[in-house]
Amino acid sequence: MKNAEAIKQQVNDKYSQIARENRNGGCCEPSCCGSNDHESFDTIMSDDYTTLQGYQPEADLGLGCGLPTQFARISTGDTVVDLGSGAGNDCFVARHLTGPEGKVIGIDFSEDMVAKARRNAEKMGYDNVVFVNGDLEDIPLEAQTADVVISNCVLNLVPNKMQVMTEIYRILKPGGHFSISDIVLTGTLPEVLQQEAEMYAGCVAGALQKEEYLLHFRAAGFTQLMIQKEKPITLPDEMLARYLSPTEVQHFQQQDSPIVSVTVYAEKPKSEAF
Q1: With 70 as the cut, is the pLDDT of residue 65 above it?
Q2: I need a surface site. Which of 4, 12, 150, 189 has the fewest CB within 10 A?
Q3: Strands 146-152, 79-83: pairing kind
Q4: What percent of the chain stands above pLDDT 90?
């Protein structure tokens, strides 16, 4: 696998391309996975946002793997921070929940995504939703900024996940909480997939084992940790065939999928300040 900076550049290039081309496509859409068959990839991981109030179709690029905003217990007047905010999809749903009294801050590594999200916010006339370019390993916000942190299929893209979890703790107010959807593993992923940088940009190779992922949050100081939703992810044959032999594909398909989307909730203790 490439080093951390090379991985970051790979991810930035892929998601900036999606923003510039103004098209929908999830983590494993064709530009990440190398297929021309869009229908094979566009619903692998993403969930349906269309029933959520505040949903804006033009901001939905299909890049998520869950519905963290639906589970995030956002209240009127909250300050919400969305890590890896893309074109603003979760931010606009969160804004409906905070109302005009609250504030929503989207952070994204891709300058193209930030520009796209700002255009979407301007079209809707939202003056309490802002988008900032930044690295999630060094979030450009003051300590104790957020009542709620949300994120949708982004931590798996960051090389130093423990650092991100520490940063989430830092920017949350005492008593604040997060709801994060992400890809984790519950079994063995073939080594070639673990080592493939392109699959990292496609949300798979960067995933941790489920228990290790949860332990990182506990190590960062979070309490009341719980899984709010869990669903298996099935990789299509076309994608597997790019990296595995026919025999390896068959073996992989005979086991339960080791790739799972989880939505995780936890709290920063009220008595602690970072």
Answers
A1: yes
A2: 4
A3: parallel
A4: 59
Which conformational region is residue 237 in: left (phi greater than 0), alpha (psi within -120 to 50 degrees), or beta? Answer: alpha
Gap between the Cα atoms of 37 and 34, Å rounded: 9
Report the 3 state secondary structure along 67-123.
Answer: CHHHHCCCCCCCEEEEECCCCCHHHHHHHHHHCCCCEEEEEECCHHHHHHHHHHHHH
Band the pLDDT of 146: cuts 50, 70, 90.
very high
Task: Please give the Cα distance from 252 to 240 (Å, whole number).
Answer: 9
Rounded Cα distance, 8 and 100, in Å? 34
pTM beyond 0.70: yes
- Only one residue has tokens 């989207």, namely 106
Side-chain half-sphere CA neighbours of 274 within 13 A: 21
For residues 233 and 47, is the Cβ–Cβ distance under 8 A?
A: no
Tell me the residue length of the chain. 274
Q: How far is 220 from 129, CA to CA, in rounded Å? A: 28
What's the CATH superfamily of 4-267?
Vaccinia Virus protein VP39 (3.40.50.150)
- Quick one: how far is CA 236 from the chain centroid? 21
Q: Helix (H) and strand (E) counts for the chain? A: 11, 7
- CA 267 – CA 222 distance, rounded (Å): 5
Residue type, 156: N
pLDDT at 11: 80
Q: Tell me what pLDDT residue 273 has.
A: 45
Handedness of CA 22, 27, 29, 35 (dihedral sign): positive
